[in-house]
Write a structure and sequence with these properties.
about 300 residues, alpha/beta, Arc Repressor Mutant, subunit A, D-Maltodextrin-Binding Protein, domain 2, nine-stranded mixed β-sheet, 11 strands, disordered C terminus
Length: about 300
């Protein structure tokens, strides 16, 4: 293997035609340069210089090596510049994973605010359910992820940034439409529309129902909240959802929102990042943004 440090001394000596001048250019001592070039000659098994009193001249082997050595050193500089540029770009680019619910109902406002406050940073975004996003933060594909609760992982730092009330939604024509509230136990009487396994909302709903000893009757599993809301609108069943996702439909009269009787049940949303990984400038700025009030659903 050719040692780049030795090649750097070789090239300097070849151009200076003198070990002492080469050492001065490299801010090294003359014996160090001489010794390293001798070591390079031993590595290659050939003489690279003719020692001519105070001067030196390249041998045929030295002349053959010189353009290749110069190319290798130039490639090293290009590689170093590319790495530094990539590191700078990495610091200025946020790799963000976002849960499906947050991507639809929270992310647009967050991105608008982030763009206003930090136009110097770029954002690359991917979506998925909580299970998928946590795996991608652990692998390093995303630096941060916005996901729901419940979740816990030894490798991840979990920081709550938003809470919203959980409510039951029904169609305006539903027999519960004029109720002031409903009991969790009442959901055992109805067909419940739920998210797929792997979704934090599905996990939270299952946890609540299990605690209340409620077994949903013939639940329908759907892949996203928009499908659930539309299905409730047309009377296919009822659903337990975060209040923030049905504001427009409730305001327009397309859905009825019913609080759950008893203590208010809230749903937490979190930002997660890997405990051991470096936090880039862009990610640090985004984490700071999430500490500020986000609106009426904020828990601050």
């Amino acid at each position: 293997m050719l040692d780049l440090q030795k090649l750097r001394m070789f090239v300097a000596a070849a151009h200076a035609r003198n070990f002492t001048r080469a050492a001065e250019q490299l801010d090294l001592t003359q014996p160090t340069v001489s010794q390293q070039i001798q070591a390079l000659e031993r590595d290659l098994g050939v003489a690279l210089f003719e020692r001519l009193g105070r001067g030196i001249e390249l041998t045929a082997a030295g002349r053959a090596l010189l353009p290749h050595a110069e190319h290798m050193l130039a490639t090293e500089r290009i590689a170093e510049q590319a790495v530094r540029a990539a590191a700078g770009l990495s610091e200025r680019t946020l790799l963000l994973g976002v849960g499906n619910t947050l991507a639809t109902y929270v992310l647009p406002d967050l991105l608008q605010r982030f763009g206003w406050e930090h136009p110097e940073f770029g954002v690359q975004i991917g979506t998925g359910n909580t299970e998928q996003l946590l795996a991608q933060v652990i692998s390093g594909a995303y630096e941060l992820a916005l996901v729901g609760s419940p979740l816990d992982h030894a490798q991840l730092q979990v920081i709550p940034f938003l809470s919203t009330e959980l409510v039951v939604i029904v169609s305006p024509d539903d027999r519960w439409a004029d109720h002031e509230s409903v009991l969790l136990a009442d959901l055992a009487q109805r067909r419940l529309l739920v998210r797929e396994a792997g979704s934090a909302l599905q996990a939270a709903t299952a946890e609540l129902l299990a605690a209340a000893h409620v077994q949903p009757r013939q639940p329908i599993v759907l892949g996203n909240l928009e499908a659930i809301k539309r299905s409730v609108e047309v009377g296919l069943g009822v659903a337990l959802v975060p209040a923030m996702v049905v504001r427009r439909e409730v305001a327009a009269g397309r859905l009825r929102q019913l609080p759950i009787a008893g203590p208010t049940m809230t749903r937490l949303y979190n930002v997660v990042h890997h405990r051991a990984r470096h936090v880039t400038e862009a990610a640090a700025a985004f984490l700071t943004l999430l500490q500020k009030p986000l609106g009426p659903e904020s828990n601050e």
